[in-house]
Fold this sequence. Notes:
Layout: H1 2-26, H2 33-58, H3 64-89, H4 91-94, H5 104-126
Helix pairs in contact: 1-2, 2-3, 3-5
Amino acid sequence: xxxxxxxxxxxxxxxxxxxxxxxxxxxxxxxTPEAINSFETGVRYQMYHAFLLLLVGxxxxxxxxxxxxxxxxxxxxxxLFSGSIYLLTTKPITGVDISAIAWITPIGGALLISAWIAIxxxxxxxxx
Length: 128
């Protein structure tokens, strides 16, 4: 699990940097400032959670079970939260319209919150 967490964290970080650069340079002329701001929110949350996976995999004293739970919650959350933001904001360019299922964005956010709750709960149990 440690290897999976570290590799996934690194890949999420890598793609966040690539998407951030794309958003700052490639989308500047094609999207409204509000859309670019939303896109950057997706990138920012992806990067935060890339760091979280790196910490979970390498530095935090979490049980194997807590690591797995955190991994699946973060991956699902980033895909739904950041992924849906990327698709929603780039609709004018891609033509992909997911507005009918835009409700997945807050579900992704709830999954990310759940990952933090799971980690916090594990710390509370560990530090008793």
